Amino acid sequence: MTDYQTARVSLGARLREVRVEAGLSGRALAQELGWHPSKVSKLELGRQSSTVADLTSWARACGSPQLTAELIAQRRAMETHYASWRRRLAAGTRARQTASAALEGRTRSLRVFESMCVPGLLQTAEYAWHVMRPGSVLHSAPDDLGSGVRARMERQRILDEPGRSFDLVLWEPALWMRPCPSAVMAGQLDHLAVLIRRGRGNIGVVPRGTRLAALPVHGFWIFDDDRVHVETIGAELRLTDSDAIAPYRTVFTDLSKAAVRGPEALRIVARVRHELFGEPST
């Protein structure tokens, strides 16, 4: 269970306490609010997210309007762990990239694992455009993809800043995914090879067929030791509780140890490029 899910269950339990203390059954409360009884049940069990209006009405119907601020504050704290992409992209892709840059600027140790694509800090502009565009369209973001891509490229400067440590790990299947035209993908693989040769980002590749202690079902970013970001199709999860972060640290350690680097990583990139496009990397 993610931090967000745990927090939603906790808020639901508090709502139930307020209702019980008011001496109301779930059905009676639903009738008072003009809701279907299942909505009361779902909110109390943490199976549905509440709105500010829901919490305001709940407190008032239970005769405890003074609890409204408490309930809304608990909901607001819960949402610091979860942000839908529609909301994250409401101001455009550039604003999203700028926020990421600000977080990375405060981070001294960055560990990244990606299983489906090349990480943003290692992308070419052309590849980034094709990776970012589907999400922008899916979530109806403002049409500022060009400036969003430029902002992502600007973020890459952090790889050359002193006093920071990086461990950027890719699962080999990420190199085989083709979210873009062949020429763009070939250019991305060439760029990755250049970065590996230069030693930027401490790049590692986990070869296909490697036996892993945990299946890497999704990518994740670890900022220092106190924050983890996980991107899903619908939202970005921001985990800050130590109990939630600990498994990611453990899994990342295993993945990093399984990764090959330097000449071995270059051989994988060259092999993928050759098998995809029939020619060696530059």
From TrEMBL:
SMART domains on file: HTH_XRE (SM00530)
Pfam family, one: HTH_31
MF terms (GO), sorted A to Z: DNA binding
Residue ranges annotated for the HTH cro/C1-type domain, each copy included: 15-71
The protein's name in its UniProt record: Helix-turn-helix protein
Species the sequence originates in: Murinocardiopsis flavida
